[in-house]
Protein backbone atom coordinates (compact mmCIF):
# COMPACT_ATOMS: atom_id res chain seq x y z
CA UNK A 1 0.00 0.00 0.00
CA UNK A 2 1.57 3.28 -1.08
CA UNK A 3 1.60 6.60 0.75
CA UNK A 4 -1.42 8.03 -1.11
CA UNK A 5 -3.59 5.05 -0.27
CA UNK A 6 -2.55 5.25 3.39
CA UNK A 7 -3.44 8.94 3.52
CA UNK A 8 -6.79 8.32 1.81
CA UNK A 9 -7.68 5.51 4.21
CA UNK A 10 -6.93 7.61 7.28
CA UNK A 11 -8.70 10.70 5.95
CA UNK A 12 -11.84 8.68 5.06
CA UNK A 13 -12.28 7.71 8.70
CA UNK A 14 -13.09 11.25 9.77
CA UNK A 15 -15.48 12.28 6.97
CA UNK A 16 -18.89 10.54 7.40
CA UNK A 17 -20.19 12.42 10.42
CA UNK A 18 -18.97 15.80 9.19
CA UNK A 19 -20.93 15.22 5.98
CA UNK A 20 -24.22 14.79 7.89
CA UNK A 21 -27.09 16.83 6.44
CA UNK A 22 -27.83 18.73 9.68
CA UNK A 23 -24.84 20.99 9.51
CA UNK A 24 -25.60 23.38 12.40
CA UNK A 25 -24.58 21.62 15.60
CA UNK A 26 -22.49 19.13 13.64
CA UNK A 27 -20.38 21.93 12.19
CA UNK A 28 -19.92 23.55 15.59
CA UNK A 29 -18.97 20.22 17.14
CA UNK A 30 -16.63 19.32 14.29
CA UNK A 31 -14.81 22.64 14.50
CA UNK A 32 -14.44 22.35 18.26
CA UNK A 33 -13.18 18.79 17.94
CA UNK A 34 -10.82 19.65 15.09
CA UNK A 35 -9.21 22.48 17.05
CA UNK A 36 -8.79 20.55 20.27
CA UNK A 37 -5.75 18.39 19.35
CA UNK A 38 -3.94 21.54 18.17
CA UNK A 39 -4.60 23.32 21.49
CA UNK A 40 -2.17 21.18 23.47
CA UNK A 41 1.46 20.36 22.82
CA UNK A 42 0.87 16.94 24.37
CA UNK A 43 -1.53 15.85 21.64
CA UNK A 44 0.57 17.32 18.84
CA UNK A 45 3.75 15.59 19.95
CA UNK A 46 2.08 12.23 20.50
CA UNK A 47 0.20 12.15 17.20
CA UNK A 48 3.14 13.28 15.11
CA UNK A 49 5.27 10.65 16.85
CA UNK A 50 2.74 7.93 16.01
CA UNK A 51 2.87 8.81 12.32
CA UNK A 52 6.65 9.00 12.34
CA UNK A 53 7.07 5.65 14.09
CA UNK A 54 4.48 3.94 11.90
CA UNK A 55 6.26 4.89 8.70
CA UNK A 56 9.65 3.82 10.03
CA UNK A 57 8.21 0.41 10.94
CA UNK A 58 7.26 -0.11 7.30
CA UNK A 59 4.94 -2.66 5.73
CA UNK A 60 1.34 -2.79 6.83
CA UNK A 61 2.28 -1.07 10.10
CA UNK A 62 2.29 2.19 8.13
CA UNK A 63 -1.49 2.18 8.10
CA UNK A 64 -2.45 -0.31 10.83
CA UNK A 65 -0.64 1.62 13.59
CA UNK A 66 -2.22 5.05 12.89
CA UNK A 67 -5.56 3.32 12.33
CA UNK A 68 -5.30 1.68 15.76
CA UNK A 69 -4.51 5.01 17.40
CA UNK A 70 -7.39 6.86 15.75
CA UNK A 71 -9.91 4.07 16.36
CA UNK A 72 -9.12 3.53 20.03
CA UNK A 73 -8.88 7.29 20.52
CA UNK A 74 -12.46 7.59 19.26
CA UNK A 75 -13.52 4.93 21.78
CA UNK A 76 -11.75 6.84 24.55
CA UNK A 77 -13.46 10.01 23.41
CA UNK A 78 -16.84 8.31 23.65
CA UNK A 79 -16.06 7.13 27.17
CA UNK A 80 -15.02 10.64 28.16
CA UNK A 81 -18.20 12.13 26.70
CA UNK A 82 -20.27 9.57 28.61
CA UNK A 83 -18.56 10.55 31.85
CA UNK A 84 -16.62 7.32 32.39
CA UNK A 85 -13.76 8.25 34.70
CA UNK A 86 -10.16 7.22 34.06
CA UNK A 87 -7.58 7.34 36.86
CA UNK A 88 -4.53 9.56 36.38
CA UNK A 89 -5.36 10.61 32.83
CA UNK A 90 -2.89 13.50 32.76
CA UNK A 91 -0.08 11.32 34.06
CA UNK A 92 -1.01 8.65 31.55
CA UNK A 93 -0.86 11.16 28.69
CA UNK A 94 2.53 12.38 29.87
CA UNK A 95 3.86 8.82 29.94
CA UNK A 96 2.53 8.13 26.43
CA UNK A 97 4.50 11.10 25.11
CA UNK A 98 7.66 9.87 26.79
CA UNK A 99 7.12 6.36 25.44
CA UNK A 100 6.38 7.46 21.87
CA UNK A 101 9.31 9.87 21.88
CA UNK A 102 11.69 7.11 22.92
CA UNK A 103 10.28 4.73 20.31
CA UNK A 104 11.03 7.35 17.66
CA UNK A 105 14.44 8.28 19.06
CA UNK A 106 15.72 4.71 19.23
CA UNK A 107 13.86 3.50 16.11
CA UNK A 108 12.41 0.57 18.04
CA UNK A 109 11.27 -2.26 15.77
CA UNK A 110 8.39 -4.45 16.92
CA UNK A 111 5.67 -6.46 15.21
CA UNK A 112 2.66 -4.66 13.79
CA UNK A 113 0.35 -6.17 16.41
CA UNK A 114 2.56 -5.02 19.30
CA UNK A 115 2.91 -1.53 17.80
CA UNK A 116 -0.86 -1.27 17.29
CA UNK A 117 -1.44 -2.32 20.91
CA UNK A 118 1.03 0.24 22.21
CA UNK A 119 -0.35 3.18 20.25
CA UNK A 120 -3.93 2.06 20.85
CA UNK A 121 -3.32 2.27 24.59
CA UNK A 122 -1.84 5.72 24.11
CA UNK A 123 -4.81 6.76 22.00
CA UNK A 124 -7.25 5.72 24.71
CA UNK A 125 -5.84 8.31 27.12
CA UNK A 126 -5.73 11.08 24.51
CA UNK A 127 -9.25 10.29 23.35
CA UNK A 128 -10.60 10.38 26.88
CA UNK A 129 -9.02 13.79 27.38
CA UNK A 130 -10.73 15.01 24.21
CA UNK A 131 -14.09 13.60 25.24
CA UNK A 132 -14.17 15.14 28.69
CA UNK A 133 -13.75 18.60 27.13
CA UNK A 134 -16.76 18.40 24.81
CA UNK A 135 -18.34 21.91 24.68
CA UNK A 136 -21.78 22.11 26.24
CA UNK A 137 -23.77 22.78 23.05
CA UNK A 138 -21.59 20.89 20.59
CA UNK A 139 -22.78 17.76 18.80
CA UNK A 140 -20.89 14.76 20.15
CA UNK A 141 -20.64 12.95 16.81
CA UNK A 142 -19.31 16.00 15.02
CA UNK A 143 -16.88 16.67 17.86
CA UNK A 144 -15.44 13.14 17.68
CA UNK A 145 -15.19 13.35 13.89
CA UNK A 146 -13.40 16.68 14.23
CA UNK A 147 -10.65 15.48 16.53
CA UNK A 148 -10.28 12.32 14.46
CA UNK A 149 -9.68 14.47 11.37
CA UNK A 150 -7.12 16.60 13.20
CA UNK A 151 -5.37 13.47 14.42
CA UNK A 152 -5.14 12.13 10.87
CA UNK A 153 -3.49 15.38 9.78
CA UNK A 154 -0.95 15.15 12.59
CA UNK A 155 -0.23 11.52 11.69
CA UNK A 156 0.39 12.60 8.11
CA UNK A 157 2.74 15.30 9.39
CA UNK A 158 4.65 12.52 11.14
CA UNK A 159 4.72 10.57 7.87
CA UNK A 160 6.21 13.59 6.15
CA UNK A 161 8.92 14.03 8.75
CA UNK A 162 9.81 10.35 8.52
CA UNK A 163 10.08 10.56 4.73
CA UNK A 164 12.69 13.31 5.12
CA UNK A 165 14.89 11.03 7.21
CA UNK A 166 17.76 10.06 4.93
CA UNK A 167 21.47 9.70 5.77
CA UNK A 168 23.29 10.00 9.07
CA UNK A 169 22.60 13.68 9.70
CA UNK A 170 18.87 13.25 9.25
CA UNK A 171 18.93 10.12 11.41
CA UNK A 172 20.57 12.05 14.25
CA UNK A 173 18.00 14.81 13.80
CA UNK A 174 15.18 12.26 14.02
CA UNK A 175 16.63 10.76 17.20
CA UNK A 176 17.00 14.23 18.69
CA UNK A 177 13.38 14.97 17.82
CA UNK A 178 12.32 11.81 19.61
CA UNK A 179 14.17 12.86 22.76
CA UNK A 180 12.65 16.35 22.55
CA UNK A 181 9.19 14.77 22.32
CA UNK A 182 9.89 12.75 25.45
CA UNK A 183 11.30 15.60 27.57
CA UNK A 184 8.18 17.77 28.18
CA UNK A 185 6.61 14.87 30.08
CA UNK A 186 7.98 16.35 33.34
CA UNK A 187 5.44 19.19 33.26
CA UNK A 188 2.61 16.72 33.86
CA UNK A 189 4.29 14.68 36.61
CA UNK A 190 2.40 14.60 39.89
CA UNK A 191 3.52 17.41 42.18
CA UNK A 192 4.78 14.99 44.80
CA UNK A 193 7.49 13.95 42.33
CA UNK A 194 8.68 17.56 42.04
CA UNK A 195 8.83 18.91 45.62
CA UNK A 196 8.13 22.63 45.89
CA UNK A 197 7.10 23.02 42.24
CA UNK A 198 3.60 23.34 40.86
CA UNK A 199 2.78 22.59 37.20
CA UNK A 200 0.94 25.49 35.57
CA UNK A 201 -2.03 24.40 33.48
CA UNK A 202 -3.50 20.93 33.17
CA UNK A 203 -2.41 20.49 29.57
CA UNK A 204 1.05 19.97 28.15
CA UNK A 205 0.50 22.99 25.90
CA UNK A 206 1.69 25.01 28.87
CA UNK A 207 5.18 23.63 29.31
CA UNK A 208 6.42 25.60 32.25
CA UNK A 209 6.53 25.32 36.02
CA UNK A 210 5.52 27.82 38.65
CA UNK A 211 8.02 29.23 41.12
CA UNK A 212 8.53 27.32 44.37
CA UNK A 213 5.88 28.08 46.98
CA UNK A 214 8.34 29.73 49.39
CA UNK A 215 9.11 32.45 46.80
CA UNK A 216 5.49 33.57 46.86
CA UNK A 217 5.24 33.59 50.67
CA UNK A 218 4.81 36.87 52.51
CA UNK A 219 7.75 36.06 54.79
CA UNK A 220 10.08 35.64 51.84
CA UNK A 221 8.87 38.88 50.27
CA UNK A 222 9.50 40.78 53.51
CA UNK A 223 12.98 39.29 53.98
CA UNK A 224 13.83 39.94 50.34
CA UNK A 225 12.70 43.58 50.66
CA UNK A 226 14.85 44.12 53.80
CA UNK A 227 17.85 42.55 52.06
CA UNK A 228 17.47 44.87 49.06
CA UNK A 229 17.27 47.97 51.28
CA UNK A 230 20.37 46.87 53.22
CA UNK A 231 22.27 46.26 50.01
CA UNK A 232 21.27 49.68 48.63
CA UNK A 233 22.45 51.36 51.89
CA UNK A 234 25.87 49.74 51.65
CA UNK A 235 26.23 50.91 48.03
CA UNK A 236 25.50 54.56 49.02
CA UNK A 237 28.17 54.38 51.74
How is the topology of this model organized?
Elements: H1 3-13, H2 23-35, H3 41-57, H4 61-81, H5 89-105, H6 112-132, H7 140-163, H8 167-182, H9 218-236
Structure in words:
The protein has 237 residues and is mainly alpha-helical. The chain has one domain. It is built from nine helices and no strands.
Structural descriptors:
237 residues; mainly alpha; 9 helices; 0% strand; globular
**Poorly predicted regions:** 13-26, 185-221, 223-228
Total beta-strand segments: 0
Compute the CA-based radius of gyration.
Answer: 22 Å
Along the chain, the helix and strand elements come as: HHHHHHHHH
What does the average pLDDT come to? Answer: 74
Total number of helices = 9
Global geometry: globular
In whole angstroms, the N-to-C terminal distance is: 80 Å
Structural class: mainly alpha
Tell me the number of structural domains.
1
Report the portion of residues in β strands: under 5%
Secondary structure: helix percent? 55-70%
**Main sheet: strands, sense, barrel:** none
Amino acid sequence: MNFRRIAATLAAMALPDIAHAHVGLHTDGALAGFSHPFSGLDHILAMVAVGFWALTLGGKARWVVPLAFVTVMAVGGGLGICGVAFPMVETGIALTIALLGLLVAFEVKVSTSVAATVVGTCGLFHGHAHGTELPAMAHAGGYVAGFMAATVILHLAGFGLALLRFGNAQRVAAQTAGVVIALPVQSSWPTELLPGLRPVGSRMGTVRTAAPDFIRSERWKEEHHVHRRSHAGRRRQ
